[in-house]
Amino acid sequence: MEAPGPNDPGYDDWFDEPEPPTETQSGANRGVYEETEEVWVLPEEEDSGSGGQRTFDIGGRTLTLTQVAIIALCVLAVFFAILAATGVFNGSKAAVPTVTTPTVHPPPTTNTTPTAPASTIQAPTQTPLQSGDTGPEVKQLQKALAAVGFSPGTPDGDYGPTTMNAVERFQIAKKLGEDGVYGPATRNALEQALNAG
Predict the structure, then answer these.
(1) Cα gap 37→114, rounded to integer Å
(2) Range of the domain at 169
(3) Which of 18, 20, 22, 19 is nearest to 30 (CA)?
């Protein structure tokens, strides 16, 4: 290790802080500091071989290698930003927006026996029909009773207790004699109800 010279402080002063400005001693300027020049960059060295930085003359301006590199990186960044904005990096296809359609629910249904319009259903012409009878005339009676709101159940062509009960309810509603037998008076009331409905 070499011995320190006469101007050498004896330690490495690379990280020493500069001396603070001194206060002037005049009374008028008390509290005012002398201006010192702050140096933020090192003076540029002349291109004298290996120690200097390479410079370029571009458009009448002299730029260092570092400045040229920064400009080139900025140009590349802008170029890649434009490519990203146009979707070049998103794959081979552009994304297709997903379209969803609202789900349409059918209206609620009720379990009812479909009935034909009142104009196509006729009251049976055969009278009397009563408990124990069977056949197409009884089935026609059952359909006619259902059409006017006195359903005896599924029309099966059998004049059983449910059909007799439906005839009785119809007779009570029309203020007829309640006997459960489909006779001439019940037939006339049923025909009027079918034609009105």
Answers:
(1) 104
(2) 136-196
(3) 22
In a domain, 33, yes or no: no
Q: Determine how many CB atoms are found less than 10 A away from the CB of residue 147.
A: 22
Please state, in angstroms and rounded to a whole number, the distance separating the CA atoms of residues 125 and 144: 12
Domain harbouring 158, CATH code: 1.10.101.10
Q: Are the C-beta atoms of 139 and 160 separated by less than 8 Å?
A: no
Does residue 48 lie in a domain region? no
Closest CA to 123 of 174, 179, 181, 188: 188
pTM: 0.40
**Token pair in block for residue 41:** 């960059």
Extract the tokens encoding 59: 């458009």
Determine the straight-line distance between the first and last CA of the chain, rounded to whole angstroms.
126
Q: What is the pLDDT of residues 44-93, one digit of tens each?
A: 554 444 456 788 787 788 888 888 889 999 999 999 899 888 877 776 65
Report helix, strand or coil for 42. Answer: coil
Q: DSSP code of 117?
A: -
Task: Write the single-letter amino acid at 23.
Answer: E
Nearest-5° Cα angle at 193, 189 to 196: 135
Q: Is position 125 within any domain? A: no
Count up the domains in the chain and report the number: 2
Distances from the Cα of 147 to the Cα of 21, 83, 144, 153, 180, angstroms: 113, 74, 5, 12, 18
- What residues contact 1, with CB distance under 8 A and at least 6 apart? none
Residue 111 resides in a domain = no
